[in-house]
Amino acid sequence: MIEVRDLQVRYAGRLVAGVPELDVGAGECVAIVGESGSGKSTTLLSLLGLTENADISGHVRVCGVDVLTASPRRLREIRGARAALVMQSPQSALSPATRLGVLMRRALRLHGVGSGKDGRLDEIMAESVAAVMLDRAILRRYPHEISGGQAQRFAIALAIALGAEVILADEPTSALDVTVQAEVVGVLRRLREERDLALLLVSHDLALVSTIADRVLVMKDGEVVESGPAARVLTEPSHPYTRELLEALP
Amino acid sequence: MTSPQETTAEVPLRRLLPRVPDRFAALGAVLIVLIVLAAIMAPWLAPYPDEPRPLEGSLPPGAAHWFGTDQLGRDVLTRILYGARTSLSIAVSVLAVSALAGVTLGVVAGYAGGWVRDAIMRVTDVFLAFPALLLSLALAVVLPPSVTTVILAIAVTWWPWYTRLAASVAASIATRPYVDAARCLGVPAPLIVWRHVLPNSLTPVLVQMSLDAGGVILTAAALSYLGLGAQEPTAEWGLMVQQGQTLFTTNWWIGTFPGLAILVTAFAFNMLGEGLRNALDPRARKVT
């Protein structure tokens, strides 16, 4: 679903993220780990063509679309509908003066999901909310009335309702407390199995990564220093930086 | 849950309505409601709605005419009530035109950034470079004196402030995660501006409008006072003050009561605006 070759993202000539190879297939979960500023979030954004004022070279295919050469219109079609982004700060990612149900309905209409009969739209909404174990009543709430964990699960529900095949998650749990993190991770893992979602996760939380990822890329200063199966990278790291990261675990 | 950056811009108005802690703001709101009601109900409230009155000369305030009658024998209270209609509709029109033009341009400038922003803001600067009252005066001199002229002349100097305000608010809204999220969902830019940037930029604009209403009424009164606005026989407070001025030493009531009406209305709008602003931005609140 995601295919990256020789991706280089530069801001004002400086290399911010360089990824020689990254593949995520359906039902797979790949995690990019590294400290702040290592280029992991930039990599994620570049997959949807959301990096502004950046020079990008290489090949990026997401859901069969060549992101770097696609027209803005074509990009808008895959954003959300086929590849959805789950952001770090769950509540601030929801427009504050709009009920969640309205937000979801608009997103679905925008991408022509369940168009025509309203009944079908309501059905899709109810189903997706149930899939992340939220109560339907949440659709009548405003963003400031729900918790961080609920907001994050709502974001995932939105991705499912839109029929996304790929979920890109940027530190999806770092703004949440530990018990809520487990909920969100549980939901992600279950959906990945049930719906064959491709999951690309950016995180600095190695504990989280070890529970969900199949493969891991370790980034430092914009470059991939190590990559491989999660089991190997997290137990027998070959790069000193990865060892450092692992040792930093409590 | 409320982070420090989340100030004026993002608090939905709905959340504020239950808490108007400020007694002055409440007083302002009550006064405004009364003034608006008085303006709407003028034909029923006014003691002598049927002009013209028989010429009986200017009478001092008394039981028959609470605020006296003017040099043409017309009831001053009646004229003040009708004048409220003129002044309020000028204020509403000016603010509506200014906010509509100003906010549209400002939100576009703030969200788009780059050369679009530069172009819009430079035009705004040109308008702001003229002293506002002089520009209004110049326009009012060129155009035939009327209420419409007053509205136009004031709106031309008023909108750039709204452009500035909306542009700065919209620029900060544009960097909010929910705007990024909308882009991530593939929402086209015009729809992002319409659905997310605009509604979330409106609160400070509404506050500014209530703060400005008093100023607009004063400016309109000033233009009419100078004979550039409303003309006889339209009842307009500024015009009434001007007519009463020459007779002040002998018939003080002709100019004084419309002057008080201007004062009270401007005061009420300012109180409400201050109160709204304080409720929205805790940092602007005075320590008591």
From TrEMBL, chain A:
UniProt keyword Nucleotide-binding present: yes
GO cellular component: plasma membrane
Membrane topology: Peripheral membrane protein
Ranges in a coiled coil: none
Residues covered by the ABC transporter domain: 2-246
InterPro entries: AAA+_ATPase, ABC_Ni/Peptide_Import, ABC_transporter-like_ATP-bd, ABC_transporter-like_CS, P-loop_NTPase
Protein name: ABC transporter ATP-binding protein
TrEMBL record, chain B:
GO biological process: transmembrane transport
Keyword Transmembrane among record annotations: yes
Chief place of localization: membrane
Alphabetical list of InterPro entries matching this protein: BP-dependent_transpt_permease, MetI-like, MetI-like_sf, OppC_N
This protein's record includes keyword Cell membrane: yes
Domain ABC transmembrane type-1: 84-273
GO cellular component: plasma membrane
TM segment ranges: 24-46, 90-114, 126-159, 252-273
Pfam families, per the entry: BPD_transp_1, OppC_N
Keywords: Cell membrane, Membrane, Transmembrane, Transmembrane helix, Transport
Localization terms from the record: Cell membrane
Membrane topology: Multi-pass membrane protein
Family (UniProt): Belongs to the binding-protein-dependent transport system permease family.
Record protein name field: ABC transporter permease
Source species of the chain: Nonomuraea longispora
